[in-house]
Amino acid sequence: MENRYQRHIQLTEIGTEGQQKIKKSKVLVVGAGGLGCPALQYLTAAGVGTLGIMDADVVTASNLQRQILFNENDLGKNKAVVAQERLRQLNSEITIKSYPFALTHENVADFINLFEIIIDGTDNFYTRYLINDQCILSKKVMIYGALFKFEGQVSVFNHKDGPSYRCLFPSPPKVGEIPNCSEVGVLGVVPGIIGMYQATEALKIILGFEDVLSGKLLCVNLLNHSNTLFNFEKRDTEIKKIKKLKRVIPIENKDCFVDFEVSLTQLSSNEKIMWIDVREKDEAPRITHLEIQEYPLSRSITSNSIVQGEAKIIAFCQTGLRSKAFVQKMKNKGIKNCFSLKEGASELNDWGRKI
User: Which residues in 6-26 are b (16+ Cβ under 10 Å) and which e?
Assistant: First the structure.
């Protein structure tokens, strides 16, 4: 379509030459969720030549409030695959690749080396540090976005040998220390705005604009209409540590809960289970079809208050984040046969209705 990019070409800062730069660019979006959906749509519309989409998750009903690439007919389908299909309808002239699996220590180098810019659309610290560390080693740019209720953050890392994510946050937080939007909620439009900021920074970098968010953290609060820009310095010690190792730094606590988790698919209606809800009392949905004991993680719990008996103890929350922290506390107190439910309260509620 000759006129597709006309509004870009009309801009003296872009022109035909700039649009050709966009056409030749390669961008990987890790996470096709609230951040990834708007970023992917605008980069597709802009004509980014090669666009990669990586996500192992499937579409659920709770995603539809903010992940605007999906609809009700997509429930249960892989996000990366569905996003690829939708985006091809928007722009058939570009190459769109879907990777329906997770980014891991084993494959991170292979995939990041295929692209020039990596957009972090994830909601977990393991993947975020993994992306950052490999971007340092591969000399790639990482565009960061994060959400909290009515607020969002954006920054650009490893741009022209600039600061990295570890320069701002040297070490990952402890498990359960910082909740994600699945735990505390998020206004649906917030990831849309932050994702568009990420797409904007990607285009500015592709076009060679100087004023990008490298060494700057933009904080946007939609509740009080405030934008705050923080400057931060490069910490050479953090970057040199990764370069010296010549590999990504293993993230502590990533695998420490593997033996503590259990999935609903592994459970039988005949099992004797003590269900423990570690959410706050005002969080929904409340589970009414199973016998539940409530121990909000925010309150102090002693091992004496939980009588295990022969039952398997299974803790749950909205996503499995806080329940993992609860199980760790119980293990430290000598409570055995205690597990964190992989699925959240909504899935458990549906499961409880069926048995």
Answer: eebeeeeebeeebbeebbebb
Indicate the average pLDDT of the chain: 86
Secondary structure of residue 220 in the 3-state scheme: strand
Quote the pLDDT of residue 251: 58
pLDDT of 3 higher than 90: no
Confidence tier at 165 by pLDDT (50, 70, 90): very high
258-354 CATH: 3.40.250.10
Predicted TM-score (pTM) of this structure: 0.72
Question: Rounded to whole angstroms, how far apart are CA atoms 192 and 198?
Answer: 10
| One-letter amino acid of 341 | L
The ranges of the chain annotated as CATH 3.40.250.10 are: 258-354
